[in-house]
Amino acid sequence: MFPGEGVVLIQSLQVTNFMQFAVRQAAETENYLTSVERIEEYATLASEADPTTQPGIIDKNWPSQGEIEFKEYFMTYRVELPPVLNGISFKVKQKNRDGLEKT
Q1: How far apart are CA 78 and CA 95, in angstroms?
Q2: What is the pTM (predicted TM-score) of this model?
Q3: For 96, which DSSP code?
């Protein structure tokens, strides 16, 4: 064994450990920054419903009969998108199990 071989071996192991630590820290930093980006994006999302919507659309006694009726109902996912439900009308009577199917 030559003088200094032990020092070289120990130093190479320390460099390897340092590189592993640096890679782990870089991955954790990326994860944290991704979380911050998601929080920022969710915090600036537009509300699904207008907060100034007037109360009273649904009667306080609802449901009083146990049935649901839709008359010429339209729905969009967003204001700028076209309707996904176009004038749909149906009635579900009490104690019935009904389903909707696209035709």
Answers
A1: 33
A2: 0.38
A3: -
